[in-house]
Amino acid sequence: MFDPAAEHPYPDSHRPDAPPAPHPLLAPVLGLLGTWRGRGEGGYPTLDGDFAYGQEVVFSHDGRPFLRYEARAWLLDAEDAPLRPAARESGWWRLQPDGRVEALITQPTGIAEIAVGQAGKGTVDLSTHDVALTPTAKEVTATRRRYTLADDATLTFAFDLAAVGRPLQHHLSASLRRTQ
Ligand code: HEM
After folding, report:
1. Which of 57, 85, 153, 168 is deepest in the core (most CB within 10 A)?
2. In the chain, how many domains are there?
3. CATH for 128
């Protein structure tokens, strides 16, 4: 008889050395698994000024050749205290042979992105393949996300954005530390 209160039989793993064994295609991104938290700076020519933000990024897997990806941000005041929730997004990074990555990423602001790119040597570089927008979303035409493992416990993140009629350019950069 099915027990609806039982534990999920296939929980996500946040560590390369914990079960289930990572799929071999995840080899180039194993260093990303886990929870990362840190601080970043952002801006865009259409905004009044630059801003500081906190960010948490989580990568996990269930033994199949894709990562589950989740990122949440919050704005910081001049003393680095939290001001308000900011962007969040989640998605799936589908690993292909030779470190190629196909990512699906959605945001509560009405933006759904398909990004493609490459993982290798401690870096992942993803650029827009396609963007779909809900009727009320801001116009976003392209993005580029770069993740770099500076060392085992430090992940840097850079994000470029083409939106509201402006060409692809810096919107965010952050340095994150592994928390678990
Ligand atoms: C760490 C993640 C992010 C943070 C902290 C952040 C922060 C901000 C802030 C503070 C603004 C000004 C409006 C407001 O106060 O809400 C803004 C505007 C905007 N952001 Fe982001 N953002 C992030 C990620 C993204 C992503 C992933 C995208 C697109 C894929 C994006 C696209 C935009 C657009 C289109 C605008 C509006 C620009 C305008 O209307 O002039 N942002 N962002």
Report:
1. 57
2. 1
3. 2.40.128.20
Atom 3 (ligand 1) nearest CA: 87
What's the gap in Å between 43 CA and the centre of ligand 1?
A: 8
Structure confidence at residue 50 (pLDDT): 98
For ligand 1, atom 12: residue with the closest CA: 47
- With respect to residue 18, please indicate whether it lies within any of the assigned structural domains: no
With a 6 Å cutoff on the Cβ, whether 124 touches ligand 1 is: no
Contact 117, 96 (CB under 8 A): no
Length of the chain: 180
Confidence of residue 1 (pLDDT cuts 50, 70, 90): confident
Which atom number of ligand 1 is nearest to the Cα of residue 86? 5
> Is 61 known to sit in a ligand binding site?
no
Question: Is the model's pLDDT at 59 over the cut of 80?
Answer: yes
Q: CA–CA separation, 80 vs 157, rounded Å?
A: 19
Query: Would the annotation count 8 as a binding residue?
Result: no
Give yes or no for residue 180 having a pLDDT over 80: no
ipTM comes to 0.97
Query: Could you tell me the residue range of the domain that residue 83 belongs to?
Result: 24-178
Cβ neighbors of 73 (< 8 A, separation 6 or more) are 40, 53, 54, 55, 56, 85, 86, 87, 88
